């Protein structure tokens, strides 16, 4: 009897650049459907979906059974609603750059489509999810999960849209997320001061691997991991500067370099650690599990910020996702999608 492999899908954070993994996965679903399989949705092929920030929104949506193309369209058609009303410099000195009301309305309405107009909770997910947040209330990282282990009783009551807004509450872009919800026992619970999980796990792939091993009891050799980025902008500066203050890190050229540095650095280190797990030091070992990383470089000709609203640039990012699917789609289907 063939041994069943445990399949993980992991999706990075990156704001509006979530267009990239959303379009890649939309191509995957459309190709599966075109091949005539009855299982053409992403949740039907992965045992665990991990996502941070925009990746968390996508992960929850996919796990609820929302087609990837719907997520892609939500981003492409509403970028200006989400990121179009940026506060001025002095406003951003005291407050976050954006109000999240438009994002909340869009996500909540989309998620409600899966439950006849009611708010689905994390327990309603059709596959297992793992979504990192930072709990500013407790002053420590946290990972939201549905009830895939008998000890996981804390999070599955949470409305899915609230979990999505919590993991995407990026510092300086949005305020920390605070709300209330009524759990399945009828008790009103507070859910206060939650911050984007990208501050510690912008690439949540390692979290997924650890969850598979500890919560599901899966051996490393039995893992199949598909990791999707949101576009890589190499952060480097070899200039001989004298002024490395807040102006450089936060406001110069309207760029939040410090946020990009933290998130890109974390993602890159996860890549390094996974390489070590996969092939050992200096890649001397045979691959210990199946792993694919899909991402794209965003060079000087296509720099896309996390809050970009330029339709032309966003369409280029979408095209890059389509190209990556053309290059890797057949391999991804053969490895991760049983037909």
Tally the helices: 11
Q: How much is the radius of gyration in Å?
A: 19 Å
Order of SSEs, N→C? EHEHHHHEEHEEHHEHHEH
Overall pLDDT metric:
90
CA-CA gap between termini: 18 Å
Structural class: alpha/beta
Features:
339 residues, alpha/beta, eight-stranded mixed beta sheet
Please, could you describe this protein's structure?
The protein is α/β, with parallel strands linked by helices and 339 residues long. It has helices at 19-34, 54-63, 68-83, 89-94, 101-112, 160-167, 198-201, 205-214, 246-251, 257-279, 311-336, and strands spanning 6-11, 48-51, 128-135, 140-145, 177-182, 188-196, 223-228, 290-294. Strands 1, 2, 3, 4, 5, 6, 7 and 8 form an 8-stranded mixed beta sheet that branches. The longest helix has 26 residues, at 311-336. The radius of gyration is 19 Å and the shape is globular.
What is the fold's blueprint, element by element?
Elements: E1 6-11, H1 19-34, E2 48-51, H2 54-63, H3 68-83, H4 89-94, H5 101-112, E3 128-135, E4 140-145, H6 160-167, E5 177-182, E6 188-196, H7 198-201, H8 205-214, E7 223-228, H9 246-251, H10 257-279, E8 290-294, H11 311-336
Parallel strand pairs: 1-2, 1-7, 2-3, 7-8
Antiparallel strand pairs: 3-4, 3-6, 5-6
Helix pairs in contact: 1-3, 1-11, 2-6, 5-6
């Amino acid at each position: 009897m063939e041994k069943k492999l445990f399949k993980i899908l992991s999706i990075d954070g990156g704001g509006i650049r979530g267009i990239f993994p959303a379009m890649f996965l939309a191509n995957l679903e459309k190709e599966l459907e075109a091949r005539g399989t009855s299982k053409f949705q992403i949740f039907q092929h992965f045992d665990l979906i991990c996502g941070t920030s925009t990746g968390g929104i996508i992960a929850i949506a996919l796990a609820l059974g929302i087609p990837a193309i719907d997520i892609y369209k939500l981003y492409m058609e509403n970028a200006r609603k989400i990121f179009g009303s940026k506060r001025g410099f002095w406003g951003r000195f005291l407050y976050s750059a954006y109000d999240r009301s438009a994002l909340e309305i869009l996500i909540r309405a989309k998620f409600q489509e899966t439950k006849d107009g009611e708010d689905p909770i994390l327990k309603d997910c059709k596959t297992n999810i793992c979504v990192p947040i930072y709990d500013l209330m407790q002053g420590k990282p946290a990972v939201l999960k549905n009830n895939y282990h008998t000890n996981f009783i804390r999070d599955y009551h949470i409305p899915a849209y609230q979990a999505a807004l919590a993991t995407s509450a990026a510092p300086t872009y949005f305020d920390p997320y605070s709300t209330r919800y009524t759990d399945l026992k009828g008790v009103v619970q507070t859910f206060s001061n939650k911050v984007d999980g990208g501050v510690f796990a912008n690439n949540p792939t390692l979290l997924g691997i650890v969850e598979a091993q500890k919560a599901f009891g899966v051996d490393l050799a039995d893992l199949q991991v598909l990791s999707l980025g949101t576009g890589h902008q190499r952060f480097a500066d070899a200039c001989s500067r004298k002024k490395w203050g807040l102006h450089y890190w936060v406001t110069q050229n309207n760029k939040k370099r410090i946020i990009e540095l933290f998130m890109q650095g974390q993602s890159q280190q996860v890549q390094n650690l996974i390489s070590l797990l996969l092939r050992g030091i200096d890649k001397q070992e045979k691959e210990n599990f199946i792993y694919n990383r899909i991402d794209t470089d965003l060079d000087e000709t296509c720099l896309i910020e996390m809050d970009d609203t330029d339709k032309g640039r966003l369409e280029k990012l979408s095209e890059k996702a389509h190209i990556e699917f053309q290059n890797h789609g057949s391999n991804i289907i053969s490895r991760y999608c049983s037909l």
